[in-house]
User: Fold this.
Amino acid sequence: MVVCKYCGQKWKSLQSLRSHLKHCPERKRVRNQWKKYAIGSTTVCVITRSPKTVRLIEAEHRRLLAGHRHPAAFVGFCEALRQVGAIQLLRLEGS
Ligand SMILES: [Zn+2]
Assistant:
């Protein structure tokens, strides 16, 4: 049994630990690999393993910047993605 030193999850082999490490949200957090989206003085910080999710957020963020989305709607969109597991970690900076 091997343990992920970032999140504490246990793995049966070194190989499965290695493939976990590519996506471990705690490891990404420690390494400060957040994707950041500015909304005025606040920044929405996201960690996700899903490129599709990144594309969805970027499209939504463009709508926000174009004035087609209220900032609160953008935050709610990200929070919903977190609740369904598409976003592993979500945090707001500033405000
Ligand atoms: Zn981990």
Q: What stands out?
A: The radius of gyration is 15 Å. The longest strand covers residues 42-47. The beta strands are 2-3, 10-11, 35-39, 42-47, 89-94.
